[in-house]
Amino acid sequence: MSSVVLITGAATGIGNLTARALAAAGHTVYASMRDPRGRNAGHAEELLELGRREGQDIRVVELDVQSDASAEAAVATVLDEAGRLDTVVHNAGHLYVGYVEAFTPEDIQRLLDINAVGIQRVNRAALPHMRARRSGTLLYVGSTTSVVVPPFLGPYVASKFAADALAQVTAYEVGQFGIETTIVMPGPFTQGTEHFPNASRAGDAERTRAYAALDAMVARNEEATEGLFPPGADAHPRAVAEEIVRVLALPAGTRPFRTVVDFSQAGVEEVNEVLRRAQEQFVTRLGFGELLHVKESQS
């Protein structure tokens, strides 16, 4: 069944690929991005032209996840035009690469604001509508880094941990209003996104120089990551977009809480299963077991 989907961070990378894949699957897609009439005008026009050429319902809406007003305005646009919002795909994010000590507190505050607080802004804009309808899906593009904790990405890993925690606890609560949650956890990708080329570096150059003995490790990080992929693997982020299409095509009430798209064979699925059992047992012992189940949608 087709649905109305809002995707954050859809100018490039996984968000862009997901917008294209969901539109091809027949969904009404609102591909959101910052400044679609300015610096992202080319990306916006590419998506709109694709929709015209293929007869797909792709629309572009401005959304800066660092602005409450922008999130509210984007959701209002979707509701005004489409009359409903079925799914939010939380994809917007930024990457920091460097030594943790060299990142200033302001650096880390900025990344947390984009990667974690941004999710909260968009949820606060979208959830009143979903709660009123007693249905909807929150789909988060998480990261296997919150399990495997790779080096030289400290603030990024911390932000993905924070985002994952927000998603989990929000899921307990909104599930009582018929709203489903899925966390899609991509592994590392060294092609097909602008994540690494656009990554920010630490703000304190002097502290960075103090770690110069480790620079060679940082320099071969991408090569080391590629070495984790099995021979012949097509480790491209389109696989994440395809998984999101698959999950949203499942009947309401049957979507997985977590799913992993990882070509690095990091064993994240096994860790997730252990965590799931421990968390479910703990919440049940607290007497809140009903929070583990989404109440049946009324729509």
Structure, described:
- By secondary structure, the chain is of the alpha/beta class.
- The protein is 47% helix and 12% strand.
- It is built from 11 helices and 7 strands.
- It has helices at residues 13-24, 41-54, 68-82, 105-133, 145-148, 154-174, 205-209, 215-219, 221-226, 238-249, 268-286, and strands at residues 4-7, 28-33, 58-62, 87-90, 136-141, 179-186, 258-261.
- A 7-stranded parallel sheet has the order 3-2-1-4-5-6-7, with helices on both faces.
- Strand 2, helix 2 (41-54) and strand 3 (58-62) form a beta-alpha-beta unit.
- The longest helix is centred in the middle third of the chain and has 29 residues, at 105-133.
- The chain is globular and about 55 Å long.
Secondary structural class:
alpha/beta
Strand order of the largest sheet: 3-2-1-4-5-6-7
Q: Counting H and I runs of at least 4 residues, what is the number of helices?
A: 11
Which radius of gyration do the C-alpha atoms yield? 19 Å
Q: Provide mean pLDDT, rounded.
A: 94
Report on the biggest sheet. 7 strands, parallel
Brief overview, please?
The protein has helices at residues 13-24, 41-54, 68-82, 105-133, 145-148, 154-174, 205-209, 215-219, 221-226, 238-249, 268-286; strands spanning 4-7, 28-33, 58-62, 87-90, 136-141, 179-186, 258-261. It is built from 11 helices and 7 strands.
